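We read letters as residues; the fold follows as tokens. A sample entry reads:
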Amino acid sequence: MVYPPRSLPDFVIIGAMKAGTTTLFHWLGSHPEVVLPKAKEPGFFARTPTWERGLDWYRGLFPERPPGFITGEASTCYLSPEFSAIAAKRLRQTNPDVRLICMVRNPEDRLRAHYRHQVQRNREHRSLAEAVADPHSPYVAVSRYTVLLQPWQGEFPEDQLLVVALDDLDADGRPGWVAVLDHLGLGHVDPPGDLRNVTAGKAQYTPLMQRIYDSPLRDTLSRLPRPVRGALRPLLLRNGRRVKARYAESKAPLPGHVQEILAAENERLRRLLSRDVLPWEVDAAR
């Protein structure tokens, strides 16, 4: 079969980090009308060195697809304090009709998951209280979804951006999943499984694993046979007392000023989502 030339994506999941983007990306990849690239997180519109590779390079990331199929990508850095504005501008300039999806989650739960993610990656060695005491803490900043969405709302029409709560992917009837399918014009099918990419309990990267993860060797490692990866595990991953202590600390109460910031974000989310009560507030009340 002859396929049309590779084109820019029909949709982009712009974030937020630790709010269900991996789950949604893989669920969409299982849909019979969707063909996705193998890799998540190209970050093309955010990072200048990647952006300078050009649109032909970016198009090459996406698989050939028959007529009637759609494709897309997911890069959580598009909804980060550092890149949100430039990513929105670049994407609007190059692909103005793209459909956008933003995943959000209880801001406090997302913050804690972000901290655990950084601990697991061996990038964070402070306690949670120390990490969020910094007034420029990314853990707090990335949980302020409505602030980070402002550049996107300024660049794209309202009907091109769908904001979905993680809880609604997992709730009875999967209302979040149904909303995504409607937003993308896809036929309704059941999602393929449960939520993915839960950090809690994962072994921590060793310094060697961190260097591999941040290098081109990352893809080579993922292609090694399972027995070989198992043999390398003691060199690459650890699950000692320090990482367990950090995971335990991630449950500690947040400082008062952080709680106030997140409470204000919940109020803005109620207005954005046109809901009197957010899904995680219902769960807390129970």
